[in-house]
Recover the amino acids of this structure.
């Protein structure tokens, strides 16, 4: 049976929030209209007294859990089981929650698991002040008895909510607790606006001071109960709607301020819009980056591999936003019981590895009373848990392959390295130390096997099963040099620093197309001067996430007579390129539907590939131009229709070569000059089919003119050939920059030497360099041309102890930070 995309309706039928009034509902896959239909009359339970606490300053930005959020939380959430069992929301009874708490206490708590979080449909009405009261059906002895049981086990307790206020509470016009003159009837934006994805509540008017007081009254009540955590769902922009027709940012800020008074953790859900990442980091302790991990397969499975695999491209966009105070949330880690997980043993380990290296909240969704031995092995490996709790989100070396290396540089100078095989066959995955930023040998420890593997000079190759993972600790050996990128968590910024925004220069390769002819024999060859690169759907650097297949020999006019296709909503393709524009080329047909298009993680638009009659081959259904000349990522996500197809991608690049196409006639031989648009010092080399040309013999460089020698060209056969010009870029193609004098960079390290490598350019001036608080020099970063990765400062002979490097902007329009490299003894 074809199910609706992501089962949005199911979540709608389970909502039971702080501000809205819903009776507990059974789990069903019926349309979302089931949610609002469940709104009932107001309850009249006894009002509880609320204690008073000190209020945080109005408008102050503070992720509310404070020091408790310095690490990702570990625990359990009820929602996966609510989708798995037939009685849905009725599963979260007092007996069940207490049983889960006891099972955690026995099996997982010694390893750091401590949160018991109850999801939607826990409440059964409101009190005389419009505050939620727990369901008496689910909790006949009161929810307080359950919370007390959880706390007695040494655990923390969490609840669930969504934005907005119901029409029933508006009509009831109840007084707001502790706020004389404030009433619930005055709290909504007028005219009424939808407040959440499902249309259960209406948008709250936070320009009315009573709105914040109302949220405060609920947060105070939760604090009195002993609530430690609030999952706040249906947050927009995100949750399937990012066009600002719904916008819950005011709700997030209000709840953050209210919960901060009590140190209650605020977790946002779901699929938050990355364009507002700074806002989420300002007010929350965690944020879901993707749709639900659950497959909505009652009695069959909790999740699928597809729902795990689609997290990789999302994390490639989000990883740098996680850190102490707020974390990228991947949803429940459902790896505890193979009979219900829905994924293989290798996939279970890959999922646990991804959650660990991403420093994602490490909470599971299985029935903890039924964990199997392998699940316990995965969930209680102390070395893997230590990786997660270190709070160092990993980044991919590249997403242009299904054999991916993810790594994080730890505070002690070691690396955490994960090898993932997202492909369909077992494979060897290689990690080169130089790609990590390590110059030197390193020892390797297998964290899952808890075994030292030895010391390796420059690389390590691991055997990784299909949909599997390996996890290692890589420790640099003596006298190694470690390169630290500008966006590493160990680099701190004082002032108004920003990242990239066209102040960066990416590394790039560009071909010089050479047509070798011989007019004496009549042989000629044509070379295209078009700077549009066509990538067929089978290009190995296009990453397909989900259940994709390839169809060849269709005879329907496809580019190179083949396409990739999928039938599963949520499946995606992704490609990272350097250029200024890109086209998504596909087939249009009645069997096709809508595709969501993203550029650099930002949703752009939904395009239709539907054609009522006939079939359109090689159709450009999405195009974008005028992008800054740099590194970009295009992603397409299937939204509807039976099929989604990818035929090819057209990438447009600015040429760094003038001309970009040349002709060499063997009968009239002459050197060929080519002018490069970058500083000649940025040219790393020229190659042909992977073989490097010899500088001085095969080519010469004089200023910006590169001359290809006729002796080299005469040795080439008649026909078309390409010479690959490679230009350096900023380290990992990014920089941090500031325009304010006095702004500074700080980096603390243990080592005997330190270097600062950054850009030189006409818009830069001077910077002061301090070591351990002492001014050691002023460096001039100006240059006639923009050049990358140049050593601006170096110090050697330092004592082998902890040091702090500080760099302050003195003059110039801009100061860029690119890379810091230090030497360990």
């Amino acid at each position: 049976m074809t199910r609706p995309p992501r089962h949005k309706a199911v979540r709608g039928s389970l909502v039971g929030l702080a501000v809205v009034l819903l009776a507990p509902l059974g789990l069903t896959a019926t349309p979302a209209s089931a949610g609002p239909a469940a709104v009932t009359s107001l309850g009249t339970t006894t009002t509880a007294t609320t204690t008073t606490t000190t209020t945080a300053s109005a408008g102050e930005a503070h992720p509310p859990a404070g020091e408790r959020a310095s690490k990702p939380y570990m625990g359990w959430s009820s929602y996966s089981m609510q989708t798995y069992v037939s009685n849905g929301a009725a599963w979260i009874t007092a007996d069940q929650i207490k049983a889960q708490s006891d099972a955690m206490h026995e099996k997982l708590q010694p390893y750091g698991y401590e949160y018991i979080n109850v999801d939607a449909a826990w409440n059964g009405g409101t009190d005389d002040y419009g505050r939620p009261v727990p369901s008496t059906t689910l909790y006949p002895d009161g929810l307080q008895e359950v919370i007390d049981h959880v706390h007695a086990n040494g655990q923390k307790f969490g609840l669930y909510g969504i934005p907005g206020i119901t029409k029933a509470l508006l009509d009831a016009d109840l007084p707001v607790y502790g706020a004389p003159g404030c009433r619930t009837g005055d709290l909504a934006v007028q005219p009424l606006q939808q407040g959440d994805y499902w249309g259960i509540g209406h948008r709250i008017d936070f320009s009315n001071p009573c709105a914040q007081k109302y949220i405060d009254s609920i947060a105070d009540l939760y604090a009195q109960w002993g609530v430690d955590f609030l999952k706040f769902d249906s947050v927009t922009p995100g949750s399937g709607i990012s066009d600002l027709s719904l916008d819950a940012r005011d709700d997030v800020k209000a709840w953050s301020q209210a919960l901060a008074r009590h140190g209650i953790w605020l977790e946002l859900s779901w699929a938050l819009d990355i364009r507002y990442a700074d806002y989420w980091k300002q007010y929350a302790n965690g944020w879901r980056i993707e749709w639900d991990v659950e497959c909505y397969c009652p009695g069959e499975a909790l999740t699928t591999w597809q729902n795990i695999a689609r997290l990789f491209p999302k994390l490639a966009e989000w990883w740098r936003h996680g850190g102490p105070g707020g974390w990228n949330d991947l949803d429940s880690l459902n790896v505890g019981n193979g009979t219900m997980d829905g994924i293989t043993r290798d996939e279970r380990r890959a999922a646990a590895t991804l959650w660990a290296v991403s420093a994602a909240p490490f909470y599971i969704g299985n029935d903890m009373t039924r964990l199997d031995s392998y699940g316990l092995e995965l969930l209680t490996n102390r070395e893997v848990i230590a990786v997660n709790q270190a709070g160092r989100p990993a980044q991919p070396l590249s997403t242009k392959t299904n054999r991916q290396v993810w790594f994080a540089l730890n505070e002690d100078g070691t690396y955490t390295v994960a090898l993932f095989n997202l492909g369909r066959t077992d494979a060897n995955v290689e990690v080169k130390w130089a790609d990590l930023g390590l110059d030197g040998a390193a020892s390797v420890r297998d964290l899952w096997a808890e075994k030292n593997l030895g010391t390796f000079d420059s690389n390590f190759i691991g055997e990784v099963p299909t949909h599997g993972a390996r996890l290692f600790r890589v420790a640099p050996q003596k006298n190694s040099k470690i390169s630290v990128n500008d966006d590493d968590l160990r680099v701190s910024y004082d002032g108004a620093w920003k990242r990239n925004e066209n102040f960066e220069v990416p590394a790039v390769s560009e071909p010089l197309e050479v047509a070798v002819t011989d007019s004496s024999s009549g042989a000629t060859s044509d070379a295209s001067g078009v700077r549009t690169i066509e990538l067929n759907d089978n290009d190995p650097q296009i990453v397909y996430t989900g259940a994709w297949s390839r169809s060849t020999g269709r005879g329907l006019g496809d580019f190179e007579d083949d396409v990739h296709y999928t039938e599963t909503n949520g499946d995606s393709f992704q490609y990272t390129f350097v250029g200024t524009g890109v086209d998504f080329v596909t087939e249009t047909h009645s069997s096709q539907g809508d595709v969501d298009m993203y550029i650099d993680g930002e949703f752009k638009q939904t395009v239709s590939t539907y054609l009522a009659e006939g079939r359109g081959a090689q159709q450009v259904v999405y195009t974008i131009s005028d992008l800054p000349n740099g590194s970009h990522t295009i992603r397409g996500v299937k939204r509807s229709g039976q099929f989604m197809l990818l035929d090819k991608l057209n990438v447009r690049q600015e040429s760094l070569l003038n001309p970009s196409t040349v002709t060499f006639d063997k009968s009239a031989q002459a050197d060929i000059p080519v002018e490069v648009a970058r500083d000649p010092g940025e040219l790393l080399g020229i190659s042909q089919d992977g073989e490097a040309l010899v500088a001085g013999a095969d080519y010469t460089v004089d200023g910006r003119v590169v001359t290809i020698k006729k002796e080299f060209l005469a040795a080439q056969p008649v026909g078309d050939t390409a010479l690959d010009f490679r230009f350096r870029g900023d380290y990992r193609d990014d920089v941090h920059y500031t325009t304010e004098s006095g702004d500074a960079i700080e980096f603390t390290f243990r080592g005997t030497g330190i270097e600062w490598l950054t850009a030189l350019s006409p818009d830069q001036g001077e910077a002061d360099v301090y070591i351990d608080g002492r001014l050691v020099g002023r460096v001039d970063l100006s240059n006639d041309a923009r050049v990358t990765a140049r050593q601006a400062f170096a110090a050697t002979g330092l004592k082998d102890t902890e040091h702090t490097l500080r760099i302050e902007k003195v003059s110039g329009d801009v100061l860029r930070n690119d890379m810091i490299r230090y030497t360990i003894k």
Summary: Residues 209-225 form the longest helix (17 residues). The longest strand covers residues 508-517. The chain is about 15% helix and 35% strand.
